Every structure is written in structure tokens, then in C-alpha cells.
UniProtKB/TrEMBL annotation:
It comes from Crenobacter caeni. This is Carbon-nitrogen hydrolase family protein. It holds the Pfam family CN_hydrolase. PANTHER family: DEAMINATED GLUTATHIONE AMIDASE (PTHR23088:SF27), NITRILASE-RELATED (PTHR23088). InterPro entries: C-N_Hydrolase (IPR003010), C-N_Hydrolase_sf (IPR036526), Nit1/2_C-N_Hydrolase (IPR045254). One of its GO terms (molecular function) is hydrolase activity, acting on carbon-nitrogen (but not peptide) bonds, in linear amides.
Amino acid sequence: MERLKVAAVQMVSSTCVDENLARAQQLVAEAAAAGAQLVVLPEYFCLMGRSDTDKLVIAEAHGDGLLQRALAALAREHRVWLVAGTLPLVSPEAGKVYNSTLVYTPGGREACRYDKVHLFGFSGLGERYAEADTILPGTAPASFEMPGARVALGVCYDLRFAELFRRMAPFDVLVLPAAFTAVTGEAHWEVLLRARAIENQCYVVASAQEGLHENGRRTHGHSMIIDPWGRIEACLPEGEGVVVAELDPARLASVRSRLPALAHRVF
């Protein structure tokens, strides 16, 4: 891995796509101005609808659409690698979309697509979530190569399934856009992120939603960047904003050479 400056963008997305896109554009510009070469938007950056079915209305066919054109232009304008959170893409099943992460190069070209594999389901403490009602799961892991780094992708609930990332190891950076609920986030967000960094001996860049959304859902925030030893390099607990950190290849090499756990893998 080469030295790399990264940024995690934290948002409180609303029910208005135009407003969310404008805010994402402002925050990506802020990250780029801070020197970030890789910028990560959160899950559902473009829409936190009042109803789970609202995402069906704005779903785009893969390869074209207002959101995809805007994201490509944003990466191109600021000359950054942009991991574009997630947006709904048309699926072959009626009434369902893919919850997809698209990655754009500094030239605005799509470099990778990942469809979220694990779909969140939770009930208790007065809350119920069932992503499978409106989302079709992806079927394969995804990673991409950028100058000096191999980057693995995951989305939110994927964080709980270590085997997804082990299938891609070794990689230098794990990127995770998310919209963790306040309840599950308070209990599990940090410990799971640090565990994925430690066991894969990689940097983790986790970009989150935070706050009370118009649909009544409260998200946890705490966007953070974690080093391969599990140390938190930067964190934004609340509100919208950007966290930036520089990833150090010497740090990565030191952790892997002193404790060569990846080389000791049996399965």
C-alpha cells in the first residue's frame, strides 16, 4: 500500500433527493479540500424515505440516471476516488431494488459495483426493520484496485458477517457505508468495526448516517477511520461533517510482519 489520505462523510439524509445530493456535493468538496484522495459517502446518502418503498420510486437502471451522472461528475470535478454510499438500482424482481455501492475513479469512470449481500432485519424496543421487503440481496463480494491500495467493500449489516471479508483478504482498506440504528449502533458499531480491522489487519473507513430522520428513525453516526491494530484514528460522533486521516503503509506492514496472522490462516 502507498500513503493514502481518506475521508468518511457523515450525513443526516432527508426525504428530499435534491437536498441530499447537494449536501453530499458540499461534503465531498470539503473532503477534497482537506486533501482526501478516497472519499466515502454513507449508506442511503441520497434518500432516507418516510416509507421503505420510497426508494423504489427513485431507482435507476445501472449505467445511467440523475444520481449516477451527478456522482461521476463529482468524482471528476474533485479528482477523487468516490465510494458513493448506496443508491437504489433497478432489480429483476418487481417491488424490490438493489442497495448498491458504486465506485468512481477521479476521471468519473465507474470502477466497481457492489450490491449489499446481507439484509438487515430487527425487531424490538419499539422498532422493526426488514430490508428484505424492498431490497433484493446481492450474491458476491466486491473489491477494487486503486493506485497503491486494494479496497474491499461492504455495507452496514455486512459488518456482522466476517466471512464476507475473509473471502477477499488480504486487502489494505475496508470501506463500509452504513446507516446503523441508534440502538444497534450504540451496542455493536465500534466493536465490530475494530474487530474487522484487527482480524483482517487492514484500515477501515466507515461512513455513517447520524441523527433523527423524518421517518422517525434515529441513526448512530460515529463515522470513523481505524488502523490495522484496531486503533481509532478519527471519529465524528454526531452531526454532519467529514473525518479525514492518512493511511500509513509502514503501519500496515509493521502490524502484518510483527503478528503475521493472515499468513497463519488455515481456513
